[in-house]
UniProtKB/TrEMBL annotation:
Family: Belongs to the neurexin family.
Protein's UniProt keywords contain Repeat: yes
SMART domains referenced in this protein's UniProt entry, alphabetically: EGF, FA58C, LamG
UniProt entry keywords in alphabetical sequence: Disulfide bond, EGF-like domain, Membrane, Repeat, Signal, Transmembrane, Transmembrane helix
Name of this protein: Contactin associated protein-like 5b
UniProt cross-references to InterPro entries, sorted A to Z: ConA-like_dom_sf, EGF, FA58C, Fibrinogen-like_C, Fibrinogen_a/b/g_C_dom, Galactose-bd-like_sf, Laminin_G, Neurexin-related_CASP
Gene Ontology cellular component terms for the protein in this record: membrane
Amino acid sequence: MFCCFLTLCCAQVSWHKVKTSKVSFCQEVLGRHFFMSVCMVWSETILQCTPSVFVLGGGGWAPERTDRLRWLQVDLRERVEVTTVATQGRFGSPDWVTSYMLLYSDTGRAWKQFRQEDNIGTFPGNTNSDGTVHHKLSHSIRTRFLRFLPVDWSPGGWMGLRVEVYGCAYKSDVADFNGRSSLLYRFNQKSTSTVKDVISLRFKSQRADGVLVHGEGQRGDYITLELHKGRLSLHINLDDAKMHPSSGHVSVFLGSLLDDQHWHSVLIERFNKQINFTVDRLTKHVRTGGLDDSLEVDYELSFGGIPLPGKPGTFLRKNFHGCMENLYYNGVNIIDLAKRRKPQIYSVGNVTFTCSEPQLVSATFLSSSSSFLSLPLDAATETLSVTFQFQTWNREGMLLSAWLRRESERLLLLLVHGQLRLTHHRSALQSSDIVIGQALSDGQWHTVSISMGGFQVSLSVDDKPPSTMQLKDIAQPGRSLVIGGCPSVLTNQGCRNPTMAYQGCMRSVIINNQPINFYLVQQGLLGNYSKLQFDICGIRDRCLPNYCEHDGECSQSWNTFFCDCSGTGYTGATCHNSIFEPSCEAHRLTGSASGFFSIDPDGSGPLKSTVVYCNITGETSVWTVVNHNSTEMVRVQGSSLQKPHVMKFNYSASLEQLRTLVSKSEQCQQEVVYLCRKSRLFNTWDGTPLSWWLDRAGERRTYWGGFLPGVQQCACSLDENCIDMNHFCNCDADRSSWENDTGVLSYKEHLPVTEILIGDTNRSGSEAIYRVGSLHCYGDRFLWNAASFYQESSYLHFPTLQAELSVDISLYFKTTAPSGVFLEHLGTKDFIRVELSAPSVVTFTFDVGNGPVVLTVKSHVPLNDKQWHYVRAERNVKEASLQVDQLPLRFLEAPSEGHTHLQLNSQLFIGGTASRQRGFLGCIRSLNINGMTLDLEERAKMTPGVSSGCPGHCSSQNSLCHNRGKCIEKSSGYVCDCTHSAYGGPNCKKEVSVSFESGSSVTYTFQEPFSVMRNHSRQSSAIFAQSSNSRESIAFSFLTTQTPAMLLTVNTYHQQYMAIILAHNGSLQIWYRLNRDKEPDIFTPMSLNLANGELHRVQIHREGRDMYIDKDTNLKYSLSTDKELITIRSLTLGRAGVDEEVLQAGSRGFIGCLSSVQFNHLAPLKAAILNRGSSLVNVLGNLVESNCGELADKSSSRSLSDHADTGSRGKKLTNAAQSDSAVIGGLIAAVVLITLCALGVMTRFLYRHRHERTRQMASVKEKDHQPRPELRYRAELDLHSAMRDSRKEYFI
């Protein structure tokens, strides 16, 4: 076997310019200074080495086709710094390597794979035999051995390789700590106090825990750098511990898997309170608290441990076991002083100055389906003992399988949910288990021991005592055992993987007290294996850096990572997308009424959501109200400029959130009520103001009204009605009577008011009363921000996006053109593009360096129909997705290995491309990228071929269609499509209400997945079974006097349910049973009786574990799990049987009125009325369409929070059969009916007379009164697009 080796040592290059310049000069050809050899390896000993004929320009290397081990290894004779590698194919042949991996090692053992930026583990190679391909390493490495490992090669030939290595010499001072030693650097004086510290070192550790640096002072200052479970932690305290116990303490954690026996670099920089902590090119910036800026350390600084005073060799914590090199403290070379035995250094224990290398050899099990290691057992052995260490991220996997001598008897060791389970199978039906350990899939090394002898089997993990299992018969080992998964050749013998095969690292395998030599296994001299890498542990921490946004919690398996977004307010694969609406205007468009809501003004941007009050006062009017800590009237006396009255206002939102909210609003205002008596604002001899307020930037403002920021003026001067025309404020008249200078501040760039200062109430009889109101903002100026493109060569351009790791793009468009580019952004090689590629096709294309990725959504109807259509495209490091209108979401997972950063450097083009080809003709509005809405209208004003706004009835923010209704342009007006709205009527504003009698119910059956998939020829016209992705949005109104009552129930095919009921006492209860093995979660938002004959509105939104009741109560609850409702089966309104817990409410059903029911984007109540004949709708009892919800809403509607006031509002509905008023009402209704009939006859006569004139005037009508689109769907329920939140879709 020919083995050519190449090893890289991971060098840490600081991002400082001095280090970068050094790398640029470190480009010597190392082959000219160091002897390179290629060796033929048959065992652990090198038997034969050949000269370095495989460098550039030589003949080249090619392995035999029968060789199992194929690599080229270079020995540089000593550690050097490597900055560049170059490759060629084999001279004069069709042999070359098209891609390869680069490994490095100090000793020729314990290899590590070099990874470029984005964790790319392979290098592109050659495309012919003579061309030279250079790769400058993203960071230099210090190493002796390099290994080139071919991954792919010439398709018409074989592997062929010539290499060259560039870099420079590397010198270092090394110290070896054996776990019981340390170096003490003693100061020249009793203590030292510093405001600036720099500590740098490189280390490689043989275990996961140990103290690297420690220093402390008598007053409580300390600094400690410690390795804990393979991570570095830095602890610093700068304050007096007795006076300020915790104010100056800070802890920083960085790095992972740092106990891999490879070099890692550390840099600690502190200046006063600012700390920069860098580990392997990853930096965290933190700032300490407290009062002091200096670090006071007494006597000495310890490296390698914390020894007890007066007890040499005794340490407070586990000390460091490994090597350090180039250890510097504030410019002092600590190891150099120790080597020269300088008096400043005191050595504790045995510290040597050469790095000892461990003899541990690891193996990596690469595949979760086909990796295995089969080893023989001695047939004469009556007992079995197995010990090994493993390291993995996977929670599941088969670690070991051993056949015993008795037929069908087997010993099986599994990793199950991060625990070890040892199972003894006596037969197919008889088995016994041992389960031990917790969280063993944490990426740490764990030691496992199995012992079998006589009538018992024992299992232990790490340092825990063993657990024993008693056997009925004596068990004896068979002839072999398998580590990892089952070989395919043994499946016929009963060896099958009950879970995944083991995927991870393993070392120190000892069977019956005999260590297993992995080198013999690798060379085929011992056992058998598949999909294994030897002498390397390929584990990676995919949560470092953490790609989960918005404080999402990262977890991982061997191949990928996952983000837990619970409680963050965000969703998606990387917690990128906000679950909240961006504004109160958006809440109004969804049909919400006034109340407290969580809004996220910057969407997927960095700012969190905030709670505001949405005052929805009319059809098109909505105000956003943000409160602060002091909205009451405040009386001020005794204040002066020397001792002023100061009030600071703390808002329910941060200043950054307020700045975003104000900038996105059409207008904002804040009322300042100011009453005064002998209290001036500005009337001083030198013009010095006596009172003022601070804006959001902290700037002093002296105007007290209006939208134009003036100097020292009040509202009365703007209105020209001040009581004394010599002054600009009423208070400056300095009268003893009460005067008023109340004003409304409306200059957006200064709002809100953050502080007010009153300084002239210290004279006799002088006082002031003021109140600063809440911040009120109106509208959303970007929701209808639009531009019209009427030249194909025109476009809008914006600055370069910052979208390396994630980008989401959303927009609305309407056009009559068959194609056009909405958006294009280019880099040197990377790009991103969203376009209408065909009349019914939207395409999202991008390239991050792995080749172009194309996602396409095709509509069954043309999209160039001059109607508004919605497009949303997203790309992150986990996946990409494309949504068009309410069509099924298309998404594609990103490769686990590949480039992740999207490198863009050009301008962002909107409505066209840089080449001025394939431009878009039509309108684009509400273009939002990563939470930032682009101002298309402003940019269009200065761009030829583009105009601001968009013509048409449906291009206005006047919201012609309400409650999720969609506006559709017509030649002579518009029509509202209310298909996906819970409301009806011409403008989707009419309440859709149904009266339920005793025993009445409506059930919607979602088709099962198999029945949906069977018929591909039919268009999707049924409610389809689907997954909710842990997200439900529910809204409805109800009116009843009965308890208990079942309002709404959702069932799944997996015995899950969600139910909303009224309990015996009339309180609202929400039940979630997402795990059938556990008790349901039960929530009671209000304990008051809601069965009081009044209309109540309920709005519920669940995202993962978090459930929000967004109506006026603004309640939030946490579920016990974030599981989704998997494959919804049915939704029931009224009587239903779910579980025995809610059976009583279900059996009683619901008697009363249900109105405007919305489930996600489904309107089930309206769908039931329109689809009475559908096989998917099952109606029991008497179901009567009525206007009970609308009538009750006008007289007695209440939100959940209104119950703080228990007084009656309006009349309660009573049973008509028991009320005299009902009889009287019936008589009145009969009279009215007769009158209406007479009027109808007269109207018909007049209609015939003026029929022709009416036809002539039809063209001037504002609206097109064609039949409403939702009436077309009476034949079947067309809910294919109603569930737009789901990614798991089934089609008919």
